[in-house]
Amino acid sequence: MYTIGEVAHLVGVSTHTLRYYEKENIILPDRNENGERKYTESHLQWLKFVLKLKETQMPITKIKEYAFLYTEGEHTAINRLKLLEDHKSSIENQLEILKETNKMLEHKITLYKEMILKRNGVDTKA
């Protein structure tokens, strides 16, 4: 079992973020007899997944929807699958845009390097 501070450190977020996720029902930690939050290894893995969804620009509303569907049980599997497939498609589109942008940047960088070398009297054709 982990404390909120330990989990925050392990996953790289603030305790405030963990409390927010709890308030939004994204994660529901256990509580001990004193009411202190206690996180299991399963909670930790869930948080890592949630953070990956967030890193890949899944809106918090969709993360909340997925968390709700997950807690509802197996009968929501089709909806969860659709949500993840849609997000995967979005990531694939983002990757294509990034690849195209990277090509454009490579071209511009090459042009600037050649311009600078030429201005400094260096033959770029050699």
Can you tell me about this structure?
With 126 residues, this protein is mainly α. The chain has a single domain (4-119), classed as Orthogonal Bundle (Multidrug-efflux Transporter Regulator, Chain: A, Domain 2), CATH 1.10.1660. Helices cover 70% and strands 3% of the residues. The chain has 5 helices and 2 strands. The chain has a two-stranded antiparallel sheet with strand order 1-2. A hairpin with a 5-residue loop joins strand 1 (30-31) and strand 2 (37-38). Helix 4 (60-72) packs antiparallel against helix 5 (77-119). The longest helix is centred in the C-terminal third of the chain and has 43 residues, at 77-119. The radius of gyration is 23 Å and the shape is elongated. It starts with a helix and ends in a 7-residue tail after the last helix. It holds the Pfam family MerR_1. Residues 1-69 form the HTH merR-type domain. This is MerR family transcriptional regulator. It comes from Bacillus salipaludis. Keywords: Coiled coil, DNA-binding.
SSE map:
Elements: H1 4-11, H2 15-23, E1 30-31, E2 37-38, H3 41-55, H4 60-72, H5 77-119
Antiparallel strand pairs: 1-2
Helix pairs in contact: 4-5
Key structural traits:
126 residues, 70% helix, mainly alpha, Multidrug-efflux Transporter Regulator, Chain: A, Domain 2
CATH topology: Multidrug-efflux Transporter Regulator, Chain: A, Domain 2
Instruction: Report the β-strand fraction as a percent range.
Output: under 5%
Structural class category: mainly alpha
Q: Going across the major beta sheet, what is the strand order?
A: 1-2
What CATH first level would be assigned?
A: Mainly Alpha
- Number of beta strands: 2
What is the count of structural domains?
A: 1
Distance between the termini: 65 Å
Query: Poorly predicted ranges (pLDDT <50, ≥5 residues)?
Result: none
Q: Helicity range of the residues?
A: 55-70%
Note the main sheet: 2 strands, antiparallel
Cα gyration radius (Å)? 23 Å
Tertiary shape: elongated
Mean pLDDT: 94
Number of helices: 5
CATH architecture: Orthogonal Bundle
The helix/strand order is: HHEEHHH
